[in-house]
Each structure stands twice: as C-alpha cells, then as structure tokens.
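Sample intake sheet
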Amino acid sequence: MSRGSDVDPIDPFAGLEAAVFERPVLSLCLPLPRGRPNWRALVDQVVEAEFENPPGELAEELEGVIADLEQRHFECSGLAIFSSRPLGIFQLWRLPEPVPPRLAWMNWFDLEPIRAQLERRPPTLIALVDKEGARLFSAVLDQTEELLAVEGVEVSRHRQGGWSAADFQRHEDEQARANLASAARAVERLLSRGFHRRLVLAGPPEARAELERLLSPRARATVTLRGHAERRIEGADLRRSLRRLLASIAEGGPR
C-alpha cells in the first residue's frame, strides 16, 4: 500500500519562472557565514550594493523577510528567497553551494542562481528500501521531502508450523519480491514525471539489488549511487542519512 503526497513532484520553480507580475517581486540570494548571521546587516549589505535609495515597497518586503529569517536556523551554504507578501508568495530554498549576494526587484523572479546549481546538482529521487517496503524522498538543492511510503506485507522471520524450511524460504522470497515490485512501480511512476534526473538506492544490499533488477532499463540508467540507510529511521538520524547519501554523490562516491 502506498501512502503520502498525491501531488505530482513537478519542477517547483516552473511556475515562478514563467510568471510575470503587475508589481515588483523580490528575488534575494544570500551567502551564509559561519555561526548565527546578523540578518539585518547581511541584507542591508546586499541592498546597498544595488540601490542608493531603495523603494519603500522593497524596504517593507525586506522587513518581512528579515523577520522570518530571524525565527529560523540554517545549516547550508546559502539561501535563495522569492517573496511578495501582497501576492501571498514566499519560497525559501536552502542551497548546497555558496552563492554570491544578489537582489532583484522587478516584475518576475530571478531564478538564474537556482538554475545554475540545479544543473550541477540535478534533482534526485532517493529510495530507502528493505524487503518490506520503501520510502521515497525528493532532494532538491539542499532540501529533502518525503513523497511516498510503500508499505508491503511483513516478511515473517519465523517459520510457521507445517512449513518445511525450503517452502518457508520460498514463501518469504516471493513476499519480499512482491513488496519490492510495488516499490519499483512507485519509483518508475515518479521518475516518469521528468523532474528527477538521478536515483539513489539505499538499504540492505539484497533488497537494493532486487529493486534495481525490477526497474526498467531507463530507470536503472538514472541510478547515481547505491548506499546504506535504514528505512525506518526518523528525525535527526534520517536527516543525517539523507545528507550523507547526497554528500557521497557530490564527492563522487561509488555508483
């Protein structure tokens, strides 16, 4: 059984890039220093480099952005912010690479710095898999989101009465294969939407290899990394595992 978001993981930037607005909107890129930044000083430096006398509407927009940033903590190399409070738009993206300070105040969003990093680090689908199911994550820039969980039937670890060892092993293998086939169909469906250009498979080697075998040649061609991670971990352990997998790709880890 699959559970999770039923929304297509389409390019989250496509709508922003195509839109032209009747009023100026803010695009802001900020490199992040070590430690807790002085957000006001950081933003003021970018504004002063672009405007001698910033428009009042821009100053108001930036006040809202600064207030939002002061409530957060970031562990990344930079930020990209796309904002228009009057239009109800606010998107903040953590960036995996340092970015030069940049501000645009015009009738469309400036996505050039985002696109440059996406070319170097394409959107990635991560599958955490074992014999009983899979969890599928979308990794875009320095952010990850769980898209789908595929929960299969439990693979029993204890032989039932009346089963021979060979029959029990055959039954266990068939159940695991059925679970992994469901996971493979979910991976194929998400990849077919065209946004994710890389696939990471993580989990016990046997389950990982069987999932890869069940994928189409086209899907197998997107496999960028095979690694280790537990499907059932949560919280900080999950975030560390996902970051470690993505860092392995950036460092040219083994396929």
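Comment: Residues 14-119 form a domain with the Translation, Eukaryotic Peptide Chain Release Factor Subunit 1; Chain A fold (CATH 3.30.960). The CA atoms of residues 82 and 154 lie 44 Å apart.
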